[in-house]
Specification:
Layout (H helix, E strand, L loop, with lengths): L15 E6 L13 H9 L3 E4 L4 E4 L11 E7 L4 H10 L3 E5 L6 H9 L6 E5 L16 H4 L12 E5 L4 H9 L3 E4 H7 L1 H11 L4 E6 L21 H14 L1 E7 L10 H16 L2
Parallel strand pairs: 1-4, 1-5, 5-10, 6-7, 6-9, 7-8, 9-10
Antiparallel strand pairs: 2-3
Length: 281
């Protein structure tokens, strides 16, 4: 099964290449390895049949018709991720990873670093993921990413966070990372929040979307839910704005189908995927 919004069947012609990573390395709980295929299956809910032609057409996102050529390259092995992302980025294509654990974002960032001399990251998460010394871990992905000199953390941002370790806050401050807690988004609104992000980052941005940034009432299918998160519309709106401002790649991670209720988290992830794709200019 492919994502509903695939409109291209050639890697050479594609402008956005979606792919899944099935592993769960770095995750505490099992289940995230099922996410890519569950998100694809959820996207099928956005298809409607045309009886006369016998074809199925995808419902368009709120952001308008998808103009870019989108290919679903299906699933790849984690060990191939960095080189695969690098090849896509060198060809000016936008890699779009469906995870899987957030730890796999590090492999995608390595690939982006191989194609760009400098870039920023905007990530949506309930945590800062800047714990040190834990090896391959969801908790240390952005701490480990500091070894990539191409990644400019002082021009990067984290939004939706609300569970910190003191050492992470100290490291974020030292790296001059823009930290926007979920409560701040609620107080200041989406437009003001995006203006802060836009002022900080450039046009070469890797967007990493951990579904756990959203409040568990709307996205229960995550391994470590943290209350008082972003609303689905806040997160979706911000992600669309970041995508429209200019991105070189993105991912949607940490959906755990084993902990989901009626597939609503996978369905939300599919919706966010379509809106990010539609937002890319």
């Amino acid at each position: 099964m492919k994502i509903a919004w695939q409109n291209c069947y050639s890697l050479d012609a594609a402008e956005i290449v979606v792919f899944g990573v099935l592993g769960q390395e770095g995750a505490i709980y099992t289940g995230t390895e099922q996410a890519p295929n569950e998100i694809r299956a959820a996207s099928a809910k956005w298809l409607y049949a045309q009886p006369l032609s016998g074809k199925s057409i995808a419902v368009q996102p709120q952001g308008g018709p998808i103009r870019k050529k989108v290919l679903d390259a299906y699933n790849i092995d984690r060990k191939e991720m960095s080189s695969f992302v690098e090849r896509l980025a060198l060809k000016k294509k936008i890699p779009a990873m469906l995870g899987g654990g957030h730890a796999y974002t590090l492999e995608a960032l390595k690939g982006i670093a191989g194609a760009h001399k400098d870039f920023s990251v905007v990530y949506f998460d309930s945590r800062l993921e800047m714990v040190s010394g834990e090896g391959i871990s969801n908790s240390s992905v952005f701490s480990d990413a500091l070894s990539l000199h191409q990644l400019k953390m002082q021009k990067s941002a984290c939004a939706g966070c609300r569970a910190f370790r003191e050492s992470e806050l100290e490291k974020a401050k030292k790296q001059k990372l823009l930290v926007i807690p979920a409560v701040e988004v609620e107080q200041e609104g989406v437009k003001k929040t995006f203006r802060k992000i836009k002022k900080r980052v450039g046009k070469k941005v890797y967007l990493s979307f951990d579904i756990g940034c959203i409040d568990p009432s709307s996205a229960p299918g995550v391994s470590e839910p943290v209350p008082a998160g972003l609303t689905a519309n806040q997160a979706l709106s911000l992600a669309k704005m970041v995508a429209a401002n200019g991105i070189v790649g993105f991912d949607i991670v940490e959906v755990n189908p084993l902990l989901d209720r009626s597939g609503i988290t996978a369905s939300l992830a599919a919706k966010i995927l379509s809106e990010i794709i539609a937002g890319i200019r």
